[in-house]
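Query structure, 158 tokens:
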């Protein structure tokens, strides 16, 4: 009888390459979303120090000049960060849905993306400091929860 080569059991237990990088994308997305939410919560608190911030922006010798300039530049490109974070979350949770079949993480990602994008693109919401901060922080937290839920669902599916 011919010898039929069999695949070792250890090789069968390993997941494909795409399944190994996917949880890392979710983990990175969760940390980025939480950082976004923390940024959106901290920015209104920093505005309480507007006189000191304006002094830091106008005086090149002020120790906070670089940080205030960076915050000003980041607020101009907020829509791009919101678009990238939303795209990453929707792509990751959609790919995860095809693997594990749980809709919850995709629903959270959709709700977070809607909040985040509307906070950065819808002008009346963007002009209101309080509601802009609430919508952006809530959207960032929802995106982080979507990534974490997707990561857990992928882990349970294995």
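Result returned for the query:
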């Amino acid at each position: 009888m011919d010898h039929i080569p069999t695949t070792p059991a250890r090789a069968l237990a390993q997941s494909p390459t795409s399944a190994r990088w996917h949880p890392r994308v979710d983990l990175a997305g969760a940390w980025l979303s939480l950082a976004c939410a923390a940024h959106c919560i901290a920015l209104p608190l920093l505005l309480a120090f507007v006189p000191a911030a304006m002094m830091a922006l106008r005086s090149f010798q002020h120790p906070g000049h670089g940080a205030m300039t960076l915050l000003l530049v980041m607020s101009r490109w907020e829509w791009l960060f919101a678009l990238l974070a939303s795209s990453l979350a929707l792509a990751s949770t959609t790919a995860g849905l095809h693997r594990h079949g749980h809709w919850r993480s995709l629903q959270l990602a959709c709700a977070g993306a809607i909040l985040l994008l509307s906070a950065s693109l819808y002008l009346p919401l963007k002009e209101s400091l309080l509601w802009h901060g609430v919508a952006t922080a809530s959207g960032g937290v929802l995106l982080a929860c979507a990534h974490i839920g997707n990561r857990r669902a992928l882990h349970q599916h294995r």
